[in-house]
Design a protein that fits this description.
Two copies of one chain form a homodimer. Chain A is α/β, with parallel strands linked by helices. Chain A folds into three domains: 44 residues, lambda repressor-like DNA-binding domains (434 Repressor (Amino-terminal Domain)), CATH 1.10.260; 132 residues, Rossmann fold (3-Layer(aba) Sandwich); 144 residues, Response regulator (Rossmann fold, 3-Layer(aba) Sandwich), CATH 3.40.50.2300. The first copy, chain A, has a six-stranded parallel beta sheet with strand order 2-1-3-4-5-11, with helices on both faces. Chain A has a six-stranded mixed beta sheet with strand order 7-6-8-9-10-12, sandwiched between helices. At the A-B interface, helix 4, helix 5, strand 2, helix 6 and helix 12 of A face helix 4, helix 5, strand 2, helix 6 and helix 12 of B. Strand 2 of chain A pairs antiparallel with strand 2 of chain B. Chain A binds a DNA duplex through helix 2 and helix 4. Chains A, B: Keywords: DNA-binding, Repressor, Transcription, Transcription regulation. Chains A, B: It comes from Amycolatopsis thermophila. Chains A, B: This is LacI family transcriptional regulator.
DNA sequence: CTGAAAGCGCTTACAG
DNA sequence: CTGAAAGCGCTTACAG
């Protein structure tokens, strides 16, 4: 136990050199003779010297830290994306400062501000509200590059973004069902309140992924020459129980749907359970499609047909994109908006 | 876009006060008159002033950042624990510096060193190797409090720890099976190579959770007056396929087990699938128990009996413990070793 | 190759 | 309540 952390000054004194020389020997910059280096290294080891990154960052202007802001780390989607991020940034020598917002805008704003003040070299953000970008605007104006993931945000058109083509993903699921002969196709969604807006056609920025998926559902029906029957659009909150109720409601209709699309995996698990409890056979009596390839979707019988998002890839690409931005010494280049494709995986819940 | 970030000096100049006064007005410490405060705040807003936490930390000696080191964020177990940590530390004004080690000791050592140099106020670590604690020893000697989660580590007996009572957890599962009349109880484990060590009885520190669970299995059998039949101890790597093979092997034995315990949820999913594919009925022909209450365990038919770990709580307690340590200004208190209890949840895979 | 000095942007006694 | 000065622990021109 040292009474006082040894600093470079202490090491320099012990080695009989200047702090500049000690710094060069220890930091691996500049030129130092072999003999001197050894003396300094020995002194450092002797004193248990631990460099202070804070001081170093103060002068170099870089922290080798990136900020990552998500709504819920416990959600497998974000946990997997996060893994993609760290797998890419860690070998490059960057660490991750993580914030969990719980989907609260105020919490996100605080996190972005604090990270900016801690001088992260850049940040990756899964925003809580697609319509609120002022805090991100501030960060970018201060020179902190921002990469958006999963959701576009209005107000920061110059931020890079990596998203999944949710429009296409949902449409592909619907097309799959249409091809199988379904005409009454329902949907369980968190974005039910956006149906009107979605039907009239809005631009993607400013929409949640769930709303974009709802739009994909609507447009795919239209392409197939089918009407959008509002009684088949069931709203649910983001939890299993709510989805269970929504599915039960759909199945209890006078004219129930023969197939249902769930716009994410949490909703799908609730819906799946509802079908089980009603004793209906899949796909004979009702077909079901979910999102994300989670382990349970292949363990249940029948297996669940899903739209598989490239979740890990989403994080990895975001990490790479941010590192590129940080490395780019020239002025601001044009923003990159990368859209990843989701893939339909057909299983027993739709195909006999 | 400012050419040059505004510093406190710039704000002070613009407000016509000293940097000390500007700092007091902005930082909320010391005394400032209302009039002065307003002038300073106005100047700061005008210049788009963004405090530099690095500089502040240099002088205050605290970063309000804690380090969290895990083997795999994408694993629901760690993702959930991480959520528990952030939920506790974030309201207290701390952010998390995250490192993912992939279970690699070298990676963990690097992460711990870097975090220590970045001057985190403390760290929470789920160690890659229970036997390797030198790097943690260094951190603690440098005055950085460490809280161990999920795994004890030798060499740092003075670090706090929050773990699950895995001995008891596994034993309870076995007792449940014994009570149901089972006499041939198998186990699928990652710690098969430790069987000899575990049978001869070693202390907990220095053992992986999976090895501790294996020990619980062994001691519960003994308590029930049953012999440990080594042919019923099936080794598997940490993935579904390997567990699938292990279960298939057990079921193909001349005298197969009538019940099998899987020491974690990944192994359980592989084993469950193997039972399905062999067309065996649970629990009539074989009973199965897993770990962790994941969504799929209630979606499959029959539902899987599990030992439920208090995962979120594990993280939350670790966060609280670390905050306590950081707040404690007095010298080193005695280390706290908190053991959380797991809970058996009986479902259809063991009970008709 | 090495050193003296300045500076990164703050906070903290110490005076007034 | 306010300010001048020192200092946190490094790195970086600038000389030699």
């Amino acid at each position: 136990m040292t009474t006082h952390d040894a600093s470079l000054i202490d090491v320099a004194r012990a080695a009989g050199v200047s702090t500049a020389t000690a710094g060069r020997a220890l930091g691996g910059y500049g030129q130092v003779s072999e003999r001197t280096r050894e003396r300094v290294l020995a002194a450092a080891a002797e004193l248990g010297y631990r460099p202070n990154s804070l001081a170093r960052s103060m002068v170099t202007g870089s922290t080798h830290t990136i900020g990552v802001v998500v709504t819920d780390v416990a959600n497998p989607f974000f946990a997997t994306a996060l893994r993609g991020i760290t797998d890419v940034t860690s070998p490059a020598g960057f660490e991750v400062l993580l914030a969990n917002t719980g989907g609260q805008l105020a919490s996100e704003q605080r996190a972005v501000t604090v990270m900016s003040e801690k001088r992260v070299d850049g940040m990756i953000v899964a925003a809580a509200r697609p319509g609120e970008g002022a805090h991100l605007r501030h960060a970018m104006d201060a020179g902190v590059p921002v990469v958006l993931i999963d959701r576009q945000v209005s107000g920061v058109p110059d931020a890079d973004s990596i998203t999944v083509d949710n429009d296409h993903a949902a449409a592909e699921a619907v097309a799959h069902l249409v091809e199988l002969g379904h005409r009454r196709i329902g949907v369980i969604t968190e974005a039910g309140d956006q149906l009107a807006r979605v039907r009239s056609g809005t631009r993607r920025r400013g929409l949640f992924p769930s709303a974009v998926r709802l739009r994909g559902y609507v447009s795919a029906l239209r392409s197939a020459g089918l009407d959008v029957d509002e009684t088949l659009v069931a709203s649910a909150r983001y939890d299993r129980e709510s989805a269970y109720d929504a599915m039960t409601r759909l199945l209890g209709l006078a004219h129930p749907p023969t197939a249902v699309l769930c716009t994410d995996n949490v909703l799908a698990s609730g819906a799946y359970r509802a079908v089980q409890d009603r004793g209906l056979r899949m796909p004979a009596e009702v077909s079901l499609i979910g999102f994300d390839d989670e382990p349970w979707t292949t363990l249940v019988r029948p297996g669940l047909t899903i739209v598989e998002q490239p979740t890990y890839e989403l994080g990895a690409r975001a990490g790479r994109q941010l590192l590129d931005r940080i490395a780019a010494t020239e002025g601001p280049r044009r923003p990159q908006h990368i859209q990843l494709r989701a893939k339909l995986v057909a299983r027993g819940s739709t195909v006999p």
